[in-house]
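Render this sequence as a predicted structure.
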Amino acid sequence: MEGKEKKKMGLTTKIFIGLIAGLIVGVIFNIAIPHCYVRDTVFVEGIFYVIGNGFIRLMKMLVVPLVFCSLVCGASAIGDTKALGKVGGKTIIFYLCTTALAVTVAITVATFVRPGIGLDMTSIQTTEVTTAEATSVTDTILNIIPENPINSLAQGTMLQIILFALIVGVLLAKMGERANLIANFVNQLNDLMMEMTLLVMGLAPIGVFCMIARTFANLGFNAFVPLLKYMGSVVVGLGIQCFIVYMILLFIFTRLNPFTFLKKFFPVMAFAFSTSTSNATIPMNIDTLDEKIGVSRKIASFTIPLGATINMDGTSIMQGVAVVFAAQAYGMQLGLKGYLTVIATATLASIGTAGIPSVGLVTLSMVFTSVGIPVEAIGLIMGIDRILDMLRTAVNITGDAVCTTIVASQNKELDKEVFYSTDNAA
């Protein structure tokens, strides 16, 4: 027996193995195994579906109490209302600017690639579409204020939960010793939720394997052919936003090495890719920023749940490309005014969008309506949206992390020694 103990495989490595294994198994199911009861009912819609969705439900179970406790603890730790307002203001402005930038990138790429030109509309199967009602600015603002915070927690209405948690956190800091009992309770509840997160995350490799296997077992490669240019446009837009726009912003504002950041943050991106939900990635995002990037947990606990709710750059890129794609497929000319309307609507639509799989398709109906594109056009892209949803979720959470790192750096809450340490790189 060797004196040195064998190094244990890390969770992120296991998740990545689960992701690759799921992809291979899914492709084998799709290409090599003919449709039959055992393939379709027992495995794809049985074992893979139940375990994959069971894992997502476990992650969703954590979201509301975790976001509430994280924000209360984050707000009370920042303490000073002026400092909190400063952090919050910078975060929201940054999120809105990157979202508007993301839609602009998407429209530029799609206009250049022209994905909708030459599309045979008769070959596309129409699908029933869920539409989103356009909400006025006044209603959007009023909807942030909870009438009943307990109901907001029960319904998982994230913006209302965020506002209530921030008020509680600020007042706990203001009350000081008088509120010690409640402050300790929320802190201990936050610790409990972090422990529960570690427990659930232990199941992540199996959950990821089943979700990816089912996705690729159902995706026939023939379905990609008429929509490859659309997919390519979205992927290029996401790539530009993630690896060029974000990394330039990170370097300009923090002077950190973008390659080191990507290397350390990649496991979170892989997890977001496999789950397609920004909310489920919140705990892993906060932990990675704290332990590997060197961001103060009190900043990350405030900005990451906020970003998962209002910062949907990846979703906005999909919506920008989808608008150009649908307009070209229907032979419509949008013009400068139409594109500016799309940028404004997609940016506003991203605020309050739930961080759950494929929700971007629902809010896309609002963007289509704003420029007069038939909502039925969403049926064109529904078949392949799942794979793009995975990619844009990875971009969404990377945007949250980059913003958090920049805000932490500007508030002197970033430990660069932790960032450049090689001990936590794995």
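Summary. The two ends are 26 Å apart (CA to CA). The first helix runs from residue 11 to 31.
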